[in-house]
Write a structure and sequence with these properties.
single chain; alpha/beta; five-stranded mixed sheet
Length: 306
């Protein structure tokens, strides 16, 4: 028996939830798929599936084996695909999701350059700041700016630090003074981001590396960083913003870093995609392109004048 055929049949039955659906997707008869799985179970000496008249579900051993099968079959398919595509241009549509501000300021130009390099590809770029489920919403690739995280159903690549600073316009600081320690922020107008998991709190690292939390309030809350940047530039308050958004303003002195001796918890730019996209040539090409574009300390890191 071809073990790979048995593994494919078993994985397809688990994915489809039954033999009949798996048989239709594989273009085989139900009995042929059943025989492949039975032979695989006999060869392994274990029961992989619970079978009833109404449904088929993996046993505990079957579930563990299924996860290994998916990885092995994906690696095999990727190797086959790499050989098949060795001398061909990738084609089709690549669906990409990314944060709004990073997308408009930096990713848009990168995507345009990518399309010039691979003219047979189309890109559907969706920009928003909510944390989407790439699998559920059908994206091939997602860019995310976040702290380190685990995602069992996703393949994750760290691209670059996403450094943040607390900043304000010189005019605001001249009128209201500069905070000397985090708790001083309580008496300032703080322009805050609407999707922060900590709510109306900013968390800072003191020079000893200890985390401090401070309640903040201000005249503006927004789920878009560019809105907060414009408000800070107009002297409406103090903002906590990524340097990819305010690097030029810092360099030109339009914004100044506040509390420079205090750090902020690390965030990174990540590229992530569903496990079943790992064998896609267009996903691999786009991932490598983005890594090359942004990983080598982009010009906005570290901020000038900090």
């Amino acid at each position: 028996m071809d073990k790979f055929e048995g593994m494919r049949a078993f994985a397809q039955v688990v994915d489809a939830g039954g033999f009949a659906a798996a048989a239709r997707q594989m273009g085989l008869s139900r009995s042929a798929v059943n025989k492949l799985v039975i032979n695989l179970e006999d060869n392994l000496g274990v029961q992989l599936l619970h079978r009833t008249t109404r449904k088929v579900t993996p046993t505990a051993t079957g579930l563990a084996f299924y996860q290994r099968c998916v990885a092995i079959l994906a690696d095999l398919a990727e190797a086959e695909l790499a050989v098949a595509n060795l001398h061909s241009q990738p084609a089709g549509t690549l669906r990409v999701n990314a944060p709004m501000s990073f997308g408009t300021l930096h990713l848009a130009a990168a995507v345009a350059d990518f399309l010039q390099q691979y003219p047979e590809l189309d890109v559907e770029l969706s920009l928003n700041d909510r944390f989407i489920d790439p699998v559920e919403e059908g994206f091939d690739v997602t860019l995310r700016i976040a702290a380190p995280f685990d995602a069992a159903s996703l393949i994750v690549h760290k691209i670059s630090p996403a450094q943040r600073v607390i900043c304000a316009a010189p005019g605001y600081l001249a009128r209201h003074g500069s905070p000397l320690e985090p708790q001083d922020l309580r008496s300032h107008s703080c322009l805050h981001y609407g999707y922060l998991g900590a709510g109306h709190q900013w968390r800072l690292l003191d020079p000893a590396g200890e985390l401090q939390s401070v309640e903040i309030d201000g005249c503006l809350c927004s789920n878009n960083g560019e809105v907060l940047r414009e408000a800070a530039l107009k002297g409406l308050g103090i903002a906590l913003l990524p340097t990819f958004l305010i690097g030029e303003a810092l360099q030109r002195g339009l914004l100044q870093v506040v509390l420079p001796e205090y750090g902020l918890p690390d965030l990174y730019i990540w590229v992530l995609y569903p496990v079943n996209r790992h064998l896609s040539a267009k996903v691999q090409l786009f991932t490598e392109f983005i890594r090359g574009r942004f990983r080598d300390c982009p010009s906005w890191n570290p901020p000038v004048g900090s």
